Fold these 2 entries.
Entry 1:
Amino acid sequence: MPWNRRNLIAIEELSRAEIEQIHATTAAFKKILQRSVKKVPALRGKTIVNLFFEPSTRTRIAFEMAAKRLSADVISFDAAASSTTKGETLRDTAQNIQALNADLIVLRHSAAGSPLYLSRLLNIPVINAGDGAHEHPTQALLDTFTMKEHLGALKGRKVVILGDILFSRVARSNIWALTKLEADVTLVGPSTLVPHWFTDLGVKVSHDLKSALADAEVVMLLRIQHERQASSHFPSLGEYTSMFGLNKTRASWLNPKAIIMHPGPINRGVEIDSDLADSNRSVILEQVSNGIAVRMAALYLCSGGQPEAVLTTA
């Protein structure tokens, strides 16, 4: 089937077939990235603007590298040195960037819904690089792609997401992606951060870490999203770690073949011990590497490219 979307705003709105199209395109670009010459001319002459209003390392750099691997020109927006400090609105900033003949905007913003808002205002594609506690679609796409590399098809596979679910856009995007791919998903953490209403999304909720980890094939750790919490949802970080941090003892409850994931940034010694983050069970750096190919796929498809064109050349 042809790719018909101009924007990538949320996993919630994608079909399973569209997720698999992005994964197939990602796999083709990953093969290209393994060559001695890693660039392709797919977006030559295009200008991509990374419009990031929140701090970012992995996502921003991965989008920059992805655009350059596609031969696009890349401009990274510095909010601290922009007219937004003088009161310019997001709308005016984005419309000025469009007037400067940008071809695509990658937006990260603290306000949920901001990428959707821009997509309705602009005549150029918008890709969501994280909007508040709403979604982070390319992270979920690279996470599920990484899982499939290790497990194959995800139908019936047992995935545990552990940590701050309530305030995590990564968790929401992964829930949508994993349920569409028919994985068996369990959310784990303190009841204040993993409320029971998440079961409405087709997942299980547990506050018993040992039983949840027992048959998990994937455990994804999430950091505590302090920047989005108006008040504390547990007594202290030390108490959170003592009950839900993944350490050697708790890792022993896992299936020996289970993989450990984390979208980053990692708070070592809080949600995960350093020796586990760096162990051979961890695929955290694989997630980072796969992030380039996933973002190449997103940029390429939203710019009008078609999956079959890449599949035949990879």
Note: DSSP finds twelve helices and nine strands in the chain.
Entry 2:
Amino acid sequence: MYQLPPTLTKQVFEKTEGPYRSGVTKKFSNKRSAKKIAKFKVGTIAQSGLAGFYVSRLLGHLVEVPPTTYRTMDMQEFEKVGEQARTTGHPDCTQAWANLRAMAKSANPRIVLSGGKLVYGALAQNPRGENSSPEDYWTVGAIRGHSFYKVLSSKAPVASVLDLSDAKSLQDLALAQDMIRGVILDSIFRQVDRLGNISVAVLQHYVTSDGKVKWDDKVSDKDKTDAASPLLALKRILYKDNDDGMNWGRDSISVSPILNEAHHVDPTIYNRLQWLAGLMQDSEPGSDAKIKDYFVNVVQISGDNYDKLKASLIKQAASLKSRVDSKDIQLDLDFEGTIKNLYAKGIEAAQAAKNAATSAVIPTGETPTPAT
């Protein structure tokens, strides 16, 4: 899916440089002038991307996983795209497209809805503006060389490794939290193609007058007015292309050593992981069936994939609990709590000013209505 400039029509784009063109390409590359804002993927990789996004949100907005949603595509449009891939792209991609064309032609239920008119899959946001770091930046060996890894691997409390009264510590704290959250997510999904799909985005962070921590790539004038802290430009880890997970038969994944060597986890992912694992084991009457129904009918993954995801998530929750109980892991990675503490005075001042402004407009003798 592309966002076209005002001077370019859909018809011209498709004819000259869009996905339906033929014979215009570079080796392994199809660069186009329009902005690619989303990708549509089908089959097992679509299920992996969908489940990865939803689980990331259920466990506390883990790292910057791009939004992904279930969508369908008209068969004729899908066949147009598939035809282009006969002569362009990497050989592995060309073969993958050949397999998809065959599945579409035979109305294979793995990618085609009953009736044969729609291909179904996942539409995922395609982030732009992030720093695509050199691949060796995210090898396991390179990760071990970063300052945030020293926070994760130390057995000492985070507060004794970082000066949490200094805003400069927030960068290492944020990256350490992102890394361990992402590694846990990938471990659950048996994600094998991660090291080439980690990027870094510089986002503006601030605390609101209500004590909420927010961050985004763009901050409006209203956001600036509502900020009770300085705007802090911090690097955050971005997990793209979450479509090579659900490799349930794999014994190891690329980032698993980092989890084994880490001794710190944030309480949000730990508590939510225990909560979700509990629901999957009927911690509330009928909760397991309800969770499966949600993943099958809302997230749109197969029942078999849900069963294997459930087993993997429960195993990961139990492993972390064992390490926390034995004090091998401490629950003291807390980026949001730290930034709130750093700017607590600013939050108090902003709230006092807001309360004063509210009381100033209430006529004498009247009682304000409580907020709902």
Note: The CA atoms of residues 151 and 372 lie 41 Å apart.
